Amino acid sequence: MPFLDPAAKGFWTAWEQEAYRVVAHLRAVVGADHEEPSLLELVGELSEESEDFQQMWARHDVRTGAATPFPFATPLSAT
């Protein structure tokens, strides 16, 4: 989850795009099983701890389907 670790924004080269994708997928999962306590607890914790998550969750975006590849930012490079 890219919301609770302050270093996460530096981990993905397109953090905001990946964060929106994660939230939209989580909303799809929660919608399919909206009474699952662990999912509700996760959303509650993220909502309390992350303003970014709160704003993205409030958009009500839903996304399912194949994962989209996303690049990581890393100080290591292939040679």
Overall description:
The protein has 79 residues and is mostly helical. The chain has a domain at 12-57. It has four helices and no strands. It has helices at residues 8-11, 15-32, 37-49, 51-57. It is globular and about 35 Å long.
Write a brief caption for the model:
The protein has 79 residues and is mostly helical. The protein has helices at 8-11, 15-32, 37-49, 51-57. The protein has a domain at 12-57.
Any descriptors?
single chain, 79 residues, mainly alpha, 0% strand, globular, MLTR_LBD, MmyB-like transcription regulator ligand binding domain-containing protein
Shape: globular
Helix content: 40-55%
| Overall pLDDT score | 83
β-sheet strand percentage:
under 5%
From N to C, what is the helix and strand string? Answer: HHHH
C-alpha Rg, in Å? 14 Å
Return the structural class.
Answer: mainly alpha
- How many angstroms does the end-to-end distance come to? 30 Å
**Largest sheet data:** none
Report the uncertain regions. none
User: Can you count the helices?
Assistant: 4
Total strands:
0
Topology summary:
Blueprint: H1 8-11, H2 15-32, H3 37-49, H4 51-57
Helix pairs in contact: 3-4
Pfam families: MLTR_LBD
Domain MmyB-like transcription regulator ligand binding: 3-75
Protein name: MmyB-like transcription regulator ligand binding domain-containing protein
